[in-house]
Amino acid sequence: MSSLSMISVTPVKGTALVHPASVELAPEGIVGNRRFHLADPDGRHVGSFDHGELVQVRTELGGDGVLRCSFPDGTVLEAHQDALGEATITHMDAHDTAGRLVQGPLAEAFSAFLGRPVHLVRADRDADGNDVEPVTLVSSGSIADVAARSGRTEETLDARRFRMNLQIDEVPPYEEDTWEGRQVQIGDVVLRVGGQVPRCRVTTHDPRTGVRDLPTLKTIASYRTLIGDRAGIPFGVYATVLRAGTVSLGDSVVPLSAL
Predict the structure, then answer these.
(1) CA dihedral 238, 241, 244, 248 (to 10 degrees)
(2) What is the DSSP pairing of strand 135-139 with strand 166-169?
(3) What are the backbone dihedrals phi and psi of residue 77, each rounded to the nearest 5 degrees, phi first?
(4) What's the predicted TM-score (pTM) here?
């Protein structure tokens, strides 16, 4: 039986992924995931697409509401998620996101790290940090297949480069693609699986350094059918939350009937 083998989240969009043993899934997705993001003074989103080095910053949101950011030079800074300033709009790729500027030292620290002025923004709704759908899902089998085709092992490829929320074991490669339109139960949570995720060049970056190190997109495009007229390169699937709750590592993953 397939099971949940890894959970990947980050409170600040584009920064290093953390891997909790369990998370709460709400209709808007994983609670707290991508609650914050960076934006330039003109309101344009600043992320790992152009600044791969953001993955070198580890961010954690504690139960006390304090956002802690650890920078590569050893600096650790904090700000409370409710210490908010003026309202702002960030222009993301897929939509505009309403939020408020986070007060404290973090915006200045991120600006110094990236070498450009940026604001740290808390989105008004957790769902607005998502690119398209609330949850993404991929199988270890699919990752192992890409690794083999890239001349690597699953371990040396490092699944974190795909930045998927939920990873499952014990299914054949790309089995998750066949679940489109079906319900899938993970523990007590029920998801509805949607379409394939079109991948961007972030997947070509080393997830530890942010440096481009592998032609992941070229490899996937060489053997997978592209997504419709968008010519998207497919890897992993989207999902929405039908029944909220907590999922934990080791929870069984059971496809249910089609909707």
Answers:
(1) -20
(2) parallel
(3) -125, 155
(4) 0.93
Strand order in the sheet with 76-80: 58-61, 66-70, 76-80
H or E element in which residue 90 lies: strand 84-91
Residue 35 CA to residue 121 CA, distance in Å, equals: 9
pLDDT in tens, 107-130: 999 999 999 999 999 999 887 777
Task: Identify the CA nearest to 37 among candidates 12, 16, 54.
Answer: 12
Q: Domains of the chain, with CATH numbers?
A: 3-28+132-258 (2.40.33.20), 32-129 (no CATH)
| Cα 111 to Cα 115: distance, rounded to the nearest angstrom | 6
SS3 168: strand
* Furthest CA-CA distance within the chain: 51
pLDDT along the chain (259 residues), means of 10: 95 96 96 96 93 96 95 96 96 89 96 97 86 92 94 83 96 96 96 94 92 94 84 93 97 83
Tell me the residue length of the chain: 259
Please write the tens of the pLDDT for every residue from 149-196. 998 876 778 999 999 999 999 999 999 999 999 999 999 999 999 999
